[in-house]
Amino acid sequence: MISQAITTPPEFETIDAELGAGSVIHLWLKARRPDRTATLSLRIDGANVADIVTGRTEEFEFHEITLPAGGRAELGYNGSDVAISVVYAFDPARVLEEGIQLLRHAKENASPALASGYHFRPPFGWMNDPNGFGRFGGRVHLFYQHYPHSPRWNTMHWGHAVSKDYLRWKHLPIFLFPASELSERADGRGGAFSGSAIPVAGRDGEEIRVFFTEQMRDRKPEEQIQLSALCRDELSAETAAIILPARPEGLDLTQDFRDPYVFKGPDGLWKMLLGSRDKAGGVVLLYETSDPQGADGWTFLGPLHREDRYGMTAAECPCMVPLGPVDEDQTRWALIFGLLTSRDPATGRRNMTSITVGRFDGRHFLPELEQELDFGSDAYAFQAFVDGDGPVGLAWLANWTDVSKKEDFPTAMTLPRRLLWNGEAVLTPPVEGIEGLRKSLLDSRRLASGDRLEFENGAIEIELDLSAAGGSFELYFDHAEVDLGLRLGTDGLEILFDRRDGKASPRYLAAGARPSHLRIFLDAGSIEVFADSGRWTGTKRLPGCAEARAARLSAAEGVVLSARVWQLEL
Ligand code: FRU
């Protein structure tokens, strides 16, 4: 329950909620003016239990309060002295089931209010890469790069959420905080950068060990070092320790040394990939440890892979998964990473992501083929883990191309995808449970016959069956802010996208693609296309939060066998 009392004087504000004993409140505040400290008082059933005072004006200061008693908790403060960014509460015993209770956020860090969105978004603030994606304690955990105080990249934290089905998420308390010296100013000097998580055996069952990069701009000699922390309760990280204080020597690497991805190798040992760069281009580094806890003993084995195409600089967020049973020699492994600053001259797309498929014996990677992860290129920092019988991954539904320090940039995660090897290519179809989002079949006739089809809202899946692979069609969407469509033609499958700002847009083209079956997912802020079970997958972020309103299909007679349209609902 959230309420804001109307009291006198008018600048006196309260945030109140009914909370149980042992509940925890996380809040961020700062002083509005350098000459007046900010004071916030917590009362429970009218009795004062804590006063928080800060003189900090530059960046919001974090406070955690555990309630000594249950009752009506009331946070009171003078709104002309105190600025609040976020306040949430949770009961540690129930938060994994219930999620946090968001009590207040500033209008500056609001998540877009979307009535029908079905993609994962943070509850407030900025989000980029998925981190630590994995199944722990029976639940799927998603951590992510997060800045709580505005929808723009800044000092990095790790946000956190859990799900039972990859689709419906409960938001959890912020998991990793930046070092205190980075928290004092909103100057984007660093924080807890991207990383991963593994399950480890603990005293009382499974625990989570996370790995991340600590970035501190201008720190000498290393801006980026690797840290690890243990989590025993699926909720909070213990104090992190440095596991790799410096880049490997003798390779002439730049300062780029980040995004530890830890996974089990075919020899049963924990391996770690790190993204880096040298004068030629991107380098993926390989480490290993024989410590079953992954806490210690990390040694450098050598560069695993290099990539210098498309003018790329650093290899970012490397990730590696087996595409079959780990103990079989024939099993292929997929190495996936972001090609930072890359630009494809043929289409103009930037910051692409590649999948390299090859053999991996735990020490050496022998590449056999390379393909693009996503022809829409807005599936960046892809991260996957083996869940049950195969890998599942997701990505940031954006890339750095359009990000600006001057504009809010709300984003989502892509739909979660499987990674399947068909003997020739990696397929990335959406996870099975996505069909469960189909609320009602809106149409199976009008779109196919060329009529304009109005949507109830912008949460839509369209499934097209063509009579022959590569049959030409054009599908147009009515969208308030952009020109949007999908075309299959002689040069391949293309997401048609134009911002209507007069600037030429890249071509989001899967050159040569000739699918016969397509699933197209529309949501506020995105389009995702899965052609032939994800043989070609294209993801494009759409600016703003407007929803597509209608669609129209144009194709020669007999090309489209069926076109079915569902309204989706989470
Ligand atoms: C990729 C990335 C990572 C880095 C993180 C910082 O999108 O640049 O390399 O760890 O974002 O937020």
Helices and strands in order:
Layout lengths: L11 E8 L4 E8 L6 E7 L2 E8 L6 E6 L4 E8 L3 E9 L4 H4 L2 E5 L20 E11 L2 E9 L9 E7 L5 E8 L3 H4 L6 E13 L2 E12 L7 E8 L9 E4 L12 E8 L5 E8 L4 E8 L9 E9 L7 E8 L10 E7 L13 E8 L4 E8 L7 E8 L2 E7 L20 E2 L1 E2 L4 E2 L10 E6 L9 E2 L5 E7 L6 E7 L3 E7 L2 E7 L9 E4 L5 E7 L2 E6 L4 E6 L6 E8 L4 E9 L2
Antiparallel strand pairs: 1-6, 2-5, 2-7, 3-4, 3-6, 7-8, 9-10, 10-11, 11-12, 13-14, 14-15, 15-16, 17-18, 18-19, 19-20, 21-22, 22-23, 23-24, 25-26, 26-27, 28-29, 30-41, 31-40, 32-37, 32-41, 33-34, 33-40, 34-35, 35-36, 37-38, 38-39
Bound molecules: beta-D-fructofuranose.
Brief overview:
With 570 residues, this protein is an all-beta fold. Helices cover 1% and strands 51% of the residues. Among the domains are: 2-90, Galactose-binding domain-like (Jelly Rolls, Sandwich); 122-246, Tachylectin-2, Chain A; 436-568, Jelly Rolls.
Describe the structure.
The protein is mainly β. It is built from two helices and 41 strands. The strands form ten sheets. A six-stranded antiparallel sheet has the order 30-41-32-37-38-39, with no helix packed on it. It has a six-stranded antiparallel sheet with strand order 31-40-33-34-35-36, with no helix packed on it. A four-stranded antiparallel sheet has the order 1-6-3-4, with no helix packed on it. A hairpin with a 3-residue loop joins strand 33 (473-479) and strand 34. The chain binds beta-D-fructofuranose.
